[in-house]
Amino acid sequence: MSDKNEIITLITGADKGIGFETAQALGQKGQHVLIGARNQERGEKAVKQLEAAGVKADFIQLDVTDKAQIKTAADKIKTDYGYLSILINNAGIAMDHHQPASQLSTDTIRQDFDVNYFGLIDVTQAMIPLLKAGKPAKIINVASNMGSMGLASDPNSRFYKVNSLGYQSSKASVNFATIIFSKELAADDITVNSVNPGWTATGFGGRPEDAPAPAGMQDVATGAAQIIKMASLPQGDKTTGTFTENAGTLPW
Ligand SMILES: NC(=O)c1ccc[n+]([C@@H]2O[C@H](COP(=O)([O-])OP(=O)(O)OC[C@H]3O[C@@H](n4cnc5c(N)ncnc54)[C@H](OP(=O)(O)O)[C@@H]3O)[C@@H](O)[C@H]2O)c1
């Protein structure tokens, strides 16, 4: 059991990319990071790397599409720490690759939703009792500018011509979850906010991780910066129900 002065932060999909970068930065600020990963080998490797950098980190096996594993993870966190301070729903995939909506199979759209939306909901619901035990607490949902309906419907936006129905609608749904959960959980001292990392040089969507970044693609530290900022707000800060990126507030 941890004493409640310790900020305990669970990050899903934290074995690499933006999740790992976020874990490293928050760990270096003194948070105790729980590295959620579906792959045990990659998760444990990430923990070793973080420990070598002086970060307090533990591995939690967590495939966000596996309800039994989510329950086991919540039970383990309850036994080992007793509470959670911050949940960062970061795990995400993009299985569609800009096919016209008229040709995109719902099988593909469902894959996007299973991880990005239903996985996020299942993890959030399972962790709420632990967040209540650790309140004031925070949930940060990693959304995307691709999921902004305001940008997608604005002819002056560069997202107007973007066409990825599965990924975009799953991330728009993440934003809706942020709005609804932020209202329900306000009375429990739990804030809920969405963050857009922006186009970032990770292995996301099958991109080779070591490929040179094209113009306009950010490095991972920049992609993680707004998540780190939101997770570093003092516990008890009342900011809730927002959708932000490094440059400021985004339209839903
Ligand atoms: N990179 C961008 O340009 C960009 C832009 C906007 C938003 N985002 C969002 O940022 C988040 C992080 O993406 P990233 O760029 O860091 O991509 P990434 O390097 O591909 O990392 C994605 C993480 O999600 C994990 N994951 C996938 N399916 C999972 C599942 N079923 N259960 C648990 N974990 C699962 C992956 O685990 P494995 O290692 O097992 O695959 C990996 O750890 C995503 O939500 C993404 O939508 C990214």
Outline the structure in words.
The protein has 252 residues and is of the alpha/beta class. It has one domain (8-249): Rossmann fold, CATH 3.40.50.720. 42% of the residues lie in helices and 14% in strands. It has helices at 17-28, 40-52, 67-80, 106-133, 149-152, 165-185, 220-232; strands at 8-11, 32-37, 57-61, 86-89, 137-142, 190-195, 243-245, 248-249. It has an 8-stranded mixed β-sheet, sandwiched between helices. α3 (67-80) runs parallel beside α4. The longest helix is centred in the middle third of the chain and has 28 residues, at 106-133. The protein is globular and about 50 Å long. The chain starts with 7 loop residues before the first strand and ends with a strand. The protein binds NADP nicotinamide-adenine-dinucleotide phosphate (NAP). NADP nicotinamide-adenine-dinucleotide phosphate (NAP) binds next to α1 and α4.
List the helices and strands and how they pair.
Blueprint (H helix, E strand, L loop, with lengths): L7 E4 L5 H12 L3 E6 L2 H13 L4 E5 L5 H14 L5 E4 L16 H28 L3 E6 L6 H4 L12 H21 L4 E6 L24 H13 L10 E3 L2 E2 L3
Parallel strand pairs: 1-2, 1-4, 2-3, 4-5, 5-6, 6-7
Antiparallel strand pairs: 7-8
Bound molecules: NADP nicotinamide-adenine-dinucleotide phosphate.
The site of NADP nicotinamide-adenine-dinucleotide phosphate has 29 residues, from helix 1 and helix 4.
Pfam families: adh_short
Family: Belongs to the short-chain dehydrogenases/reductases (SDR) family.
Organism: Secundilactobacillus hailunensis
